[in-house]
Amino acid sequence: MEFVGTMTDNGPFKNEEYHGSLSGEANSSDNLELYHRFNDERNPKYQAMITELHDFFRLTLAETINVTDIDGLKYDNIKVTKFRELMPRMLNNCRELTQRKSYIPLDLEISENEEKQKRFQLLHRHQIVLSFQEFCDEMAKSIIEAHVLSFLSKCEYSYDIVSKHWASFYKLFEYVIGALGPIISYVPVNYPMIKKELGFELLTLFQYYDFKLFECIKANFGEEFPILVTASIHHYIHMFPITNIMLENETPMLRIMSNCNFNVEGLSPKSYYLKTLKAYFEEEPNLGPKLETFRNFKVLLTRNALLASLFFPEWVSDANDLFIGHLLLNKYSISQYIEIGKNTYDEQKERYFKTETSFSLLMFRNAFEARNMLKEFREFCDDVISEKLGAAYGANHDTEKLFDEVVQLANVDYLKIYSDTLEHHLCELLGSTSKAIEHYVKYFESHLFRLVRKIKAKRTELSRDAKKKYLYENIPILRLKFVNLPTFPSFFERSIFRKTILQSDQDSVFVKDILPVYKDCLMELFKQRIITNVSQEDEMLYRDQYQPYLSQFFQPVEVMADLKIKYASFLSFYENIEVAVKFGKKYNEDNYSSFFPLIFDRERIPKIFQQSNDELGKNFILPQEMDSTWNEFLSSFHQDNKLKDSDTSKKELYPMWNLHHCDVESPYTIPQGGYLTFELTLFQTCVLTLFNDSNRLTFQSISEQTKLGHKDLMLILKSFLNYKIVTRDNENTYKINENFQPDLRKVKNGKLRVVLPRNTSMQISSNSTNGRSSSLHHEGSNSQWTQELLKTCITRSVKGEKEGLSYDRLFETVKQQIKGFSVGEFRDALAKLLRDKFITKDESTETYKY
């Protein structure tokens, strides 16, 4: 087969496969050795052909070595015509030199009698062809070396300059190889059967000479060659902006190296690129987990993909995985993202992290899930939340700071990605779910009180709606699952009821300023921002985009129904509080009395305060002044209601002595001026006023005068001893401490509240059998006990079913075992068992198994 062709700008043979050895080098330094090797001194014709080919290579070098404008060279008709006219003759020389016959001397052993004769052996055709190809390779290599030296000299061997002008140099190199293409590809094209013997493998002719190009460049840079390759990569990394149009005419060094399988430092071009890219991500400060990086995440990811496709389209996936791994698939980035969210609250959208419609924690989760790393994601979130809450709580157990952190963390987690983890660690730090709710109630109310004081400090009378709006925007709302438990409002009921009892007087800030906003503000916050969680507009936005995750923040119908019933009761409770306070204020004003009565329907008093006082009511002795006040109130109350013939007149008025509180003025002065006032329970007051008539009292005498039970009296005396208001001598006799100095840190508005001790195991005689129950209450224990019972019943139910139980069957099975729990409590217990891996859920069958 004979090849005939003409010279073109880029060469006509780029699609031809050219297999060959990349390491084979010519043994001769003389490019004309082919003539001598063929022993053609007797045939000037072949010698002339070789010389003509040699001159053509030299002409190509001479015409291209100093070219700076490749476009000008392509359209230089004189030079193009010159090459085109010479090419047929050069191809004919190639044909003649590869098809000719050639002989080599043959040395034979001869006897002494035989006449010595010179003999020749015909050289095999493939040896001739291989030698000719070697000649072409040597000539092409000389031209490559000349162009490389010229290029590097012009660039002063600068990595940056070489990278900047590489594309124009390589275009010239392509032109040169294209001009020589018909000659240097003559053997591979016309003798395909000997390709394997040439030593080439899986490389086209042009890839082979690309390899030779990089060998030459590497020889010039030596050990610094990797620095050049890195600089060529950074040339494009730092190109801003970067678009497809800009990259159309670019021919990156690394792309050519990949095509010809030229390794760098023992790494493939792809591996070297990813190594360089990883180092760049780690060193570039603008690509760290920062607000701008997250905000422009999709843009940066697209740019990263575009850059990788410039080198090789197949690298895009790995390059993006590297970028995602750097920015998303690690605990530090998750932690930083959460911190960014906490510090970028958007008041307009009432959410943290302003760009979460284009980027959110869900993208972190999806990135982990796509790589089957959900377990690692949960572990990272768990560690991050645990560390943040632990740091906030600290060694001094600062619940205020802890809930500041929890509220912010919950608000950042708008899609409820780590809310279960957050709730778990909060409850773990505080001891239980009930304890967490108790502390949150205190935290919430402390913020509410401070906000009300701020409103008053402005000295401007705000409208009711303005107050509601101000409180609505500034009260810290907790968005966790336990907030939706039907038991949750009960904790607020207890707290508000207690504060109503403790602070209900005509001049009370609580009664005048705090209580009126509770019903309006708190109900709106709980009903709309906690139960619903998401506005209707956001619901439509997220419903399509985040369908699989909706169940995390939209409550099921049955749970919502249960909650609505509970919150309706909650509203009724506040109305009852308001009616009671209104009555107390009116009576206080009409009678010019320091007595502020509160009357409640028994069913509206939290059960935890409804203690049996039958025995105590029969025996308890009020001081004379208090007794007369109480009797006057009873007479007035029954008389007024009898005249009105109201339903109230038909009900029995029952005094709950253990809930009565008194303000008692003491003889002790305080630095602000005036006398210190003690805030006491009625029982404490009855005991303390006994010291008005006696300096010293024994336990027995106090008990006889008050008829208080042994246990209650011990608690009361212990409270006075703790505050050092009274002292006790060796004879177990109590007297007033005349040197009493109050702890001014506990004095508020001239009042000191003397709190009953919580430790009921103090010095109480074991033989006291006639004592009555103390007024202490362990709030939340019932809810916690219900949770533990539910968890036990659920585990027991699934343990006995090998095939597992569906949600409905499991609920009915548990319902048959225990009563009095809500759907929300059941779901909460089930979630905790799944989280702690006591049971599992089979997603394929939607069943729960042990």
UniProtKB/TrEMBL annotation:
Q: Where along the chain is composition biased (Low complexity)?
A: 765-774
The protein's matches in Pfam families, at most eight in alphabetical order, are given as: Cullin_AB
Domain of life where this protein originates: Eukaryota
The record's region (Disordered) falls at 762-783
Check the record and name the Gene3D superfamilies matching this protein: Cullin, Chain C, Domain 2 (3.30.230.130)
| PROSITE patterns reported in the protein's UniProt record | CULLIN_2
InterPro entries for this protein: Cullin, Cullin-like_AB, Cullin_homology, Cullin_homology_sf, Cullin_neddylation_domain
Residues in domain Cullin family profile? 435-721
The family classification in the record reads: Belongs to the cullin family.
Q: What is this protein's name?
A: Cullin family profile domain-containing protein
Species: Saccharomyces eubayanus (Yeast)
Q: Upper taxonomic classification of the species?
A: Eukaryota, Fungi, Dikarya, Ascomycota, Saccharomycotina
The gene for this chain is U6500J01620
